[in-house]
């Protein structure tokens, strides 16, 4: 611009001079007329507004004056102006008015005020993340987490190292919950009959519903209810506050009742305890002390509220480091393929109904008084071997039953544990942590399938006027035989609180958007009873409400916030000497006497909220809500302040500490406040003997299981979970009728390869073209694609619940088939009498791995997975040289030897890099610890802004996950050994990708990282072709959603968001490395071991992934790389990967070797 | 007329090869015959039909390119293990086709094979157009084609050079050099004929355009002397390029460590394959051309037979390449190589492999037979078969190697989408369109060089007037 001015200015001067010489004295007339003309133009300009102006500009441009103004470089008489600023002013004016005219033609932007921090909160440093302790819940059970917050928006979930259910790790659901917060499909407004309504509208309706007498007669001429008729349907609840609130409401409203329905709950476990002990109980196991574990269809490593903690304990007991010579042994008797079965030392696939007879036969060995049940010889051999092993490890063993098994199996497991002396050592019992099992009044019967049945019966009997559904989606997932939809339609007032406008919302009068846990105040218990306060990190994005607030709407204090409610409850707890407050029980009769009155009297006694009704509005950051932020990343989290012996009666101290720690600690013993632990009082009674053994069913059986990634369907709209491969099957975006090769062959399904029935490979990448079948159970039919899975028990079909949603959102709607459609209330987990008919046509299903291609021979020859038995390991920790045939060269494998030696063996054309100074990042992945839970995949996706690409693109094998977990099978396809192998970028020192990149977009860092420069990448994809590990991911299309506003908040600000045409891959979370390095440099010290934890390592429940500086001989990663089990993947290619693997070791019972 | 009855060019030979030009032609008749094709006002109807169809496909190409650039290469079937597919298959295929032109023009010129004269012009044109088609693919196969210029070493504010260890950079140099030299060679060779057309053109526009392109050629002895030197120099320059281009293209694969790519046989085997496919394409084009334009006098049976023999020879080299690939796979005792060979022969793409063997090795063996070499329709069919076979070869090399490499967990399948096909057929359309334009507006046979074949051109000093 300045150049132009410079160039032009001489000309201007010239012209001015010319004018000066030619023109006469400026006449005031001329000046006046010019001013007048300008005025008129200005007026015209002023008269025109907004969009019209563009048209009128042309009109204006046609006027003589304007033409003259525009055409001539200077208006006439310009030279006459004495004041040089006048001309400039005119030009400015002209320019400004034109510019303004143009601007006004654009869409008017709403006024937005950007307010900087007037007083910057102490802990907030822009660009630096804060961590807040809170808790996420699944099925009601809490998992303590630390939520990472960037300038007030949560971006990542990490485990809370101090929380017993987390121990620093999390499961995939917690990881993906962050996407749930920002899901653009979340319900955004409160609606009444489909129209937008306000919260006060709802409060008014809620209050009115309690007053209004039942208007219509019940069908069948039964006596109509007198008043109230309030029913609350919830999912499983462990929240003390919520349970208290429900209790209060139930007590205050006549004819009210609380029903619970959790489609994938653990009723059987509770009922099993009741059968064994005569009362409900919660069993807690300690796998770190168990030498022998027998799982009776229990997928304890990947399902259930304690799976993360159990996985850690289990892996710890089996960690083979530094010459450890003991290792636990896991027997799994299971009716489907699970991660737990995959890592078992001895796995026996059985039909689901056979587990009970197996358990009975096992119990007979320990003198447990149960009726015997016939079992076949093969199982007998297993029973004998297991019984022998268990007896040898009394007090250090665990028998655990799965939630899918009937109560008697749980009872038998408890009885065996008792006989073995495990109780108090590896098993302990507490009172149930779920609310509603304490014999409270107004609670529907115990088993959840029964309680929803009771609800349906009551509705049909005309006893229900108002139904409040807090969370859950019963229209979708209620047992098929209950006909819940028809019943629901009979209720006069139906209220539904949920995250999405789902199937149930559609049939409810009121739909209330539910606040995400990162937006809510609440509380919940972990599997062992530890109570966490759930604190928000952000104000509800869509004005969502919590269940606390919805329940409050039915009371006299409808405007209470959940903060007030939750804090009020805990104030009461604190004031009451750390005793959980019991709600005042109001006799039903006296409540009924209050018919027609406002239930005010009861509500007044509630006191669930502090008396003060000051306008304590929630603020956007939790730091302002009284919580204590953790400024350091979770790994460096300060230890719990143990010096605080008590709270000196200061509730605020207690509250702040509870929020800071992520759970409530009692001052007296510094233990985690929770359910009373009273193992001694749990003794197995004689109830078991009376339970008749179930009749073994002939023919096909069906197994219902919650989906490994989208659970019971609540995560159906979560793209990360839909796209996360299901462990072992690696299916994405679909469920299937999973069956064994033999069963498929018998039914004529699938295709045959090498004499084994397998899935038919499609043509476009990861697609399989599979048969469809009609599954018929009790007269109800659903059509499902068939997936043939090695290791699945014969004559059994597994279906995952949670798919086939009709109103899940853009992501989840219509993916897969709805298995609930055939799930009966009488047999929620498995049933016999399944009929299968092959349906016409085929179905395209996507798996990320083409298993059927892998037979053990090929894998073995390729030296991908190294494994040995424990005996072999003890003999030769370096592993048997059984795979020598794979080696390109005849020389011995460089396992466990130094890199220098490797280089000597495999000389390279390129000069050796010197990594001896500074940092040398590396990783080890312990195949012995990996349980294939896939949490690392979702954690990586969350940390590194990895997009979701959808089923069609996944079918083309274009998955973007930077990390994959491969599953390899070994042995007989009817019951193979399964090995998991997470494969991130191997960060080769001699990286094949680097030499072939034409633009140097992938280069080596001085610390040995194989860096990817996204900006430089032009997308030739040569690097991927030359990568033997195939860990590079290419943006074939524009996979990132750059436009959805809510998803912008989701992203990690420290990681580039990649656009299309660019290659990307694992970077060892280089942003975390840099952050730690900067921090260390500031303090003038080297980065300490453990300071940098990659996302995959942080989330890993079993600590299978270890990252660190190899140059530091004391670092854990360097130590692990010295283990004899250490090996590099595809070592013979001389890529010298920084990621190495520790060979898997299994400890099978020699007696059960085939 | 039986071709062994006369020898129109080399009377000193005792064994007389078949004629490279039919008897009875004079300088004038040669010039007339060839230049009339260009200068006539009557464009034959079949030209319009053929050009129209070709244009249609060229339009499909442009549409595909537009959609591709706007959407991303995800519209193709390329996927995770098979990151390269039709894009690189077609690139290599077109580059291979582009080999015959320069080989015929340059190497045969240097080897003084006079029979090249009547086919070199359109073979060179074919080279140019094939290279143009080939060049589209490496450019458009990139994820961000608008940044593909980063592959060129130019001083830039980023301060970054290309990464010279990458064969793709070598490719850039090899292909662009080849394209440049081929274009120059072709154009230099055209100049005397353009002057002829200028002189014979009746219409003003044609006169002007040809005049402009003829660059003031007057046919003076000095011009001819300069021309001869320049042409010979260019031939010398182009000759190593014939070998280098496909050698470098083969490095794209051979340098990678992928089983099925990482083989030392690749350079010679690729060059032979390129010549093989190039000659096949020349035959595919020459046979209909001589038929439609009645050019049997200039493109004689001798040409066809010679080309058939070159095909047979290069085809055998290619066959040797296949054999060595399989042999080395077995002999290396390398699991991955062994599996690769096994998978090629019996895996999901086995049908492509065996079709390739049939097309490139088995069927061309018919060319051993003199009867077959004399059978023009059969030659045409065989040339098409070889074209298909060479395309299949690239498919087999690229797709079957990529789809199952080291780790079985990352194995996948590949299937082209409609956009892969539209891109491929579109380049064929573009190629044919350019070809149609070429035969309509430029002399497809070198007029002045064919004149030198006439006995009349033989002056007393043989050898001085070779070109």
Protein described:
- The complex is a heterodimer of chains A (1154) and B (467).
- With 1154 residues, chain A is α/β, with parallel strands linked by helices.
- In chain A, 30% of the residues lie in helices and 17% in strands.
- In chain A, strands 5-4-16-15-14-6-7 form a 7-stranded mixed β-sheet, sandwiched between helices. In chain A, strands 19, 20, 21, 24, 25, 26 and 27 form a 7-stranded mixed β-sheet that branches. In chain A, strands 11-10-9-12 form a 4-stranded parallel β-sheet.
- In chain A, 56% of the residues are buried.
- Chain B is an all-alpha fold and 467 residues long.
- Helices cover 67% and strands 0% of the residues of chain B.
- Chain B contains 16 helices and no strands.
- In chain B, helix 4 packs across helix 9 (266-292).
- Chain B starts with 26 loop residues before the first helix and ends in a 14-residue tail after the last helix.
- At the A-B interface, helix 26, strand 30, helix 31, helix 32 and strand 34 of A face helix 6 and helix 11 of B.
Brief descriptors of the model:
A: 7-stranded mixed β-sheet; disordered N terminus; B: about 475 residues; mainly alpha
Helices and strands, with pairings:
The complex is a heterodimer of chains A (about 1150) and B (about 475).
Chain A: H1 2-22, H2 28-47, H3 52-62, H4 64-71, H5 84-104, E1 130-138, E2 141-150, E3 153-159, H6 172-182, E4 191-192, E5 195-196, H7 199-211, E6 230-234, H8 240-252, E7 257-260, H9 267-277, E8 282-285, E9 292-296, H10 307-318, E10 329-334, H11 339-342, E11 346-349, H12 352-364, H13 377-392, E12 397-401, H14 407-419, E13 427-430, H15 448-460, E14 466-470, H16 474-477, H17 484-488, E15 493-498, H18 503-506, E16 510-513, E17 522-525, E18 531-534, H19 547-552, H20 562-575, H21 588-593, H22 600-606, H23 651-661, E19 700-706, H24 719-723, E20 731-732, E21 737-739, H25 741-747, E22 751-753, E23 756-758, E24 767-777, E25 780-788, E26 796-801, E27 830-847, H26 856-862, E28 867-869, H27 870-875, H28 899-905, E29 921-926, H29 935-943, H30 951-955, E30 964-970, E31 977-983, H31 992-996, E32 1002-1004, E33 1010-1012, H32 1022-1025, E34 1033-1034, H33 1045-1050, E35 1063-1064, H34 1070-1082, H35 1095-1099, E36 1105-1109, H36 1116-1121, E37 1126-1127, E38 1139-1142, E39 1144-1146
Chain B: H1 27-39, H2 45-71, H3 86-97, H4 99-110, H5 117-140, H6 167-200, H7 204-214, H8 221-254, H9 266-292, H10 301-331, H11 335-346, H12 350-362, H13 370-374, H14 376-403, H15 418-441, H16 447-453
Helix pairs in contact in B: 1-16, 2-15, 3-5, 3-9, 3-14, 4-5, 4-8, 4-9, 5-6, 5-15, 6-7, 6-8, 8-9, 9-10, 9-14, 10-11, 11-12, 12-14
């Amino acid at each position: 611009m300045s150049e132009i001015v410079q160039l032009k200015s001489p000309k201007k001067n010239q012209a001015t001079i010319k004018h000066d010489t030619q023109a006469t004295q400026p006449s005031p007339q001329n000046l006046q007329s010019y001013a007048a003309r300008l005025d008129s133009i200005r007026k015209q300009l002023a008269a025109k507004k907004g969009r019209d102006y563009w048209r009128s500009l042309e009109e204006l441009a046609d006027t003589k004056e304007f033409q003259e103004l525009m055409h001539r470089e200077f208006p006439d008489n310009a030279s006459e102006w004495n004041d040089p600023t006048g001309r400039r002013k005119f030009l400015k004016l002209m320019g400004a008015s034109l510019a303004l005219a143009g601007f006004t033609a654009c869409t008017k932007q709403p006024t937005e005020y950007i307010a900087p921090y007037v007083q910057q909160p102490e802990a907030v440093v822009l660009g630096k993340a804060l961590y807040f302790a809170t808790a996420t819940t699944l099925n009601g059970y809490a998992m303590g987490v630390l939520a990472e917050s960037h300038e007030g928006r949560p971006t990542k979930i990490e485990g809370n190292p101090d929380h017993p259910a987390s121990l620093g790790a999390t499961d995939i659901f917690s990881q993906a919950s962050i996407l749930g917060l920002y899901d653009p499909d979340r319900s955004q407004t409160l609606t009444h009959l489909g129209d937008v309504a306000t919260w006060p509208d709802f409060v008014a309706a809620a209050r009115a519903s309690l007053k209004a007498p039942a208007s219509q007669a019940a069908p069948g001429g039964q006596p109509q209810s007198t008043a109230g008729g309030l029913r609350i349907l919830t999912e499983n609840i462990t929240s003390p506050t919520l349970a208290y609130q429900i209790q209060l409401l139930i007590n205050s409203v006549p004819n009210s009742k609380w029903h619970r329905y959790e489609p994938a709950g653990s009723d059987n476990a509770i009922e099993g305890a009741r059968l064994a002990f005569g009362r409900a109980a919660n069993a807690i196991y300690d796998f770190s002390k168990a030498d022998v574990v027998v799982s009776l269809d229990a997928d304890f490593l990947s399902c259930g509220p304690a799976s993360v903690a159990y996985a850690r304990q289990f892996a710890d007991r089996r960690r083979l480091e530094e010459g450890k010579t003991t290792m636990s042994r896991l027997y799994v008797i299971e009716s489907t393929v699970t991660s737990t079965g995959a890592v078992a030392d001895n796995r026996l696939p059985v039909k689901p109904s056979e587990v009970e007879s197996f358990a009975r036969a096992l119990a007979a060995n320990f003198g447990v008084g149960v009726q015997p049940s016939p079992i076949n010889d093969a199982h007998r051999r297993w029973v004998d071997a297991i019984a022998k092993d268990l007896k040898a490890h009394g007090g250090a063993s665990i028998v655990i039953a799965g939630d899918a098994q009937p109560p008697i199996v749980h009872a038998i497991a408890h009885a065996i544990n008792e006989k073995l002396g495990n109780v108090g050592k590896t098993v302990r019992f507490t009172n149930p942590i779920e609310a509603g099992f304490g014999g409270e009044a107004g609670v529907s019967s115990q088993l959840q399938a029964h309680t929803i049945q009771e609800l349906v019966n009551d509705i049909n009997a005309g006893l229900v006027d108002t139904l409040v559904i807090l969370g859950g989606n019963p229209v979708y997932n209620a047992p098929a035989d209950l006909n819940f939809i028809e019943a629901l339609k009979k209720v006069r007032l139906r209220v539904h609180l949920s995250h999405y406008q789902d199937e149930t919302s559609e049939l409810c009068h009121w739909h209330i958007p539910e606040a995400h846990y990162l937006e809510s105040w609440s509380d919940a218990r972990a599997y062992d009873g530890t109570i966490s306060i759930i604190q928000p990190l952000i104000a509800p994005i869509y004005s969502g409400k919590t269940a606390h607030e919805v329940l409050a709407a039915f009371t006299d204090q409808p405007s209470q916030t959940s903060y007030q409610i939750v804090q009020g409850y805990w104030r009461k707890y604190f004031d009451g000497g750390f005793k959980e407050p019991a709600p005042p029980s109001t006799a039903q009769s006296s409540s009924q006497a209050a018919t027609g009155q406002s239930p005010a009297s009861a509500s007044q006694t509630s006191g669930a909220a502090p008396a003060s009704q000051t306008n304590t509005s929630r603020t956007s950051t939790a730091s302002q809500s009284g919580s204590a932020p953790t400024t350091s990343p979770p790994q460096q989290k300060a230890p719990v302040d143990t010096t605080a012996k008590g709270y000196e009666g200061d509730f605020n101290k207690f509250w702040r500490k509870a929020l800071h720690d992520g759970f409530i600690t009692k001052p007296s013993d510094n233990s985690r406040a929770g359910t009373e632990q009273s193992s001694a009082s749990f003794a197995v009674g004689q109830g078991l003997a009376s339970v008749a053994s179930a009749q073994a069913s002939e023919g096909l059986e069906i197994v219902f299981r919650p989906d490994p990634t989208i659970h019971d369907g609540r995560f159906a709209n979560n793209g990360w979970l839909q796209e996360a491969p299901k462990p072992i099957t690696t299916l994405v975006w679909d469920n299937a009728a999973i069956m064994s090769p033999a069963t498929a062959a018998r039914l004529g399904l699938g295709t045959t390869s090498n004499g084994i029935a397998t899935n038919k490979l499609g043509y476009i990448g990861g697609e399989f073209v599979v048969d469809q079948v009609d599954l018929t159970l009790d007269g109800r039919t659903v059509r499902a694609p068939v997936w043939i899975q090695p290791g699945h028990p014969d004559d059994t079909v597994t279906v995952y619940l949670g798919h086939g949603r009709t109103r899940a959102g853009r992501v989840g709607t219509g993916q897969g088939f709805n298995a609930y459609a055939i799930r009966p209330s009488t047999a929620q987990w498995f049933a016999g009498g399944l009929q299968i008919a092959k349906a016409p046509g085929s179905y395209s299903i996507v798996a990320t791995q083409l298993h059927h291609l892998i037979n053990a021979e090929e894998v073995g020859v390729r030296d991908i997975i190294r494994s040995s038995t424990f005996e072999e390991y003890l003999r030769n920790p370096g592993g048997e040289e059984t795979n020598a045939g794979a080696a390109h060269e005849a020389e011995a494998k460089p396992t466990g030897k130094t890199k220098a030696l490797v280089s000597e063996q495999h000389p390279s054309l390129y000069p050796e890099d010197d990594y001896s100074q500074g940092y040398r990042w590396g990783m080890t992945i312990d195949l012995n610890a990996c349980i294939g839970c896939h949490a690392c995949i979702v954690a990586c996706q969350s940390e590194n802004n990895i997009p979701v690409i959808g089923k069609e693109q996944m079918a083309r094998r274009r998955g973007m996950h930077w990390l994959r977990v491969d599953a390899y099978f070994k042995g007989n396809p009817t019951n193979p050994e399964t090995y998991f192998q997470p494969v991130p970028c191997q960060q080769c020192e001699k990286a094949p990708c680097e030499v072939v990149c034409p633009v140097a977009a992938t280069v080596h860092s001085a610390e040995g990282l194989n860096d990817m420069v996204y900006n430089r990448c032009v997308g030739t994809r040569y690097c991927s072709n030359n990568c033997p590990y195939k860990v590079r991911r290419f943006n074939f299309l524009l996979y990132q959603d750059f436009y959805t506003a809510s998803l912008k908040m989701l992203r990690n600000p420290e990681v580039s968001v990649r656009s299309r045409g660019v290659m990307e891959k694992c970077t060892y979370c280089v942003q975390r490395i840099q952050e730690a390095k900067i921090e260390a440099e500031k303090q003038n010290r080297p980065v300490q071991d453990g300071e940098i934890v990659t996302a995959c390592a942080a989330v890993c429940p079993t600590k299978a992934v270890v990252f660190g500086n190899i140059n530091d001989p004391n670092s854990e990663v360097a130590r692990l790389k010295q283990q004899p089990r250490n090996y590099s993947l595809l070592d013979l290619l001389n890529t010298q990967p920084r990621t190495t693997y520790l060979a898997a070791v299994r400890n099978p019972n020699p007696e059960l070797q085939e | 007329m039986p071709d062994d009855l006369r020898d129109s060019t080399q009377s000193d030979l005792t064994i007389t090869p078949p004629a490279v030009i039919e008897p009875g032609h004079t300088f004038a008749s040669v010039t007339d015959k060839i230049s009339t094709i260009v200068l006539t006002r009557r464009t034959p109807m079949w030209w319009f039909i053929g050009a129209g169809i070709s244009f249609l496909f060229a339009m499909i190409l442009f549409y595909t390119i537009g959609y591709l650039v706007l959407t991303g290469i995800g519209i193709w079937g390329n996927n995770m293990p098979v990151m390269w597919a039709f894009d690189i298959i077609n690139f290599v295929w077109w580059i291979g086709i582009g080999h015959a032109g320069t080989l015929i023009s340059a190497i045969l010129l240097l080897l003084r094979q006079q029979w090249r004269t009547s086919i070199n012009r359109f073979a060179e044109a074919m080279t140019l157009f094939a290279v143009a088609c080939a060049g589209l693919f490496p450019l458009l196969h990139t994820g961000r084609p608008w940044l593909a210029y980063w592959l060129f070493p130019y001083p830039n504010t980023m301060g970054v050079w290309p990464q010279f260890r990458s064969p793709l950079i070598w490719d850039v140099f090899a292909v662009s050099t080849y394209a440049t030299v081929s274009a120059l060679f072709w154009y230099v060779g055209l100049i005397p004929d353009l002057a002829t057309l200028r002189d014979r053109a009746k219409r003003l526009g044609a006169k002007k355009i040809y005049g402009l392109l003829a660059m003031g050629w007057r046919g003076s002895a000095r011009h001819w002397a300069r021309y001869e030197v320049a042409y010979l120099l260019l031939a010398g320059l182009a000759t190593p390029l014939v070998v280098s281009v496909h050698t470098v293209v083969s490095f794209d694969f051979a340098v990678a460590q992928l089983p099925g790519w990482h083989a030392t046989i690749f350079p010679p085997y690729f060059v032979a394959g390129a010549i093989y496919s190039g000659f096949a394409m020349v035959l595919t084009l020459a046979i209909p051309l001589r038929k439609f334009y009645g050019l049997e006098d200039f493109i004689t049976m001798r040409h066809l037979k010679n080309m058939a023999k070159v095909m047979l020879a290069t085809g055998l080299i290619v066959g040797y390449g296949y054999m060595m690939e399989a042999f080395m796979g077995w002999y290396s005792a390398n699991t991955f190589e062994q599996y690769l060979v096994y998978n090629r022969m019996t895996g999901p793409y086995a049908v492509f492999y065996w079709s390739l063997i049939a097309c490139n090795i088995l069927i061309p063996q018919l060319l051993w037979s003199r009867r077959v070499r004399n059978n023009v329709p059969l030659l045409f069919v065989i040339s098409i078969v070889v074209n298909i076979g060479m395309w299949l070869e690239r498919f087999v090399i690229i797709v079957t190697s990529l789809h199952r490499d080291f780790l079985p967990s990352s194995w996948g399948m590949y299937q082209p989408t409609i956009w892969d096909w539209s891109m491929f057929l579109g380049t064929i359309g573009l190629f044919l369109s350019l070809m149609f334009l070429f035969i309509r507006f430029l002399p497809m046979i070198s007029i002045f060089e064919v004149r030198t074949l006439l006995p009349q051109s033989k002056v007393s000093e043989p050898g001085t007037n070779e070109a």
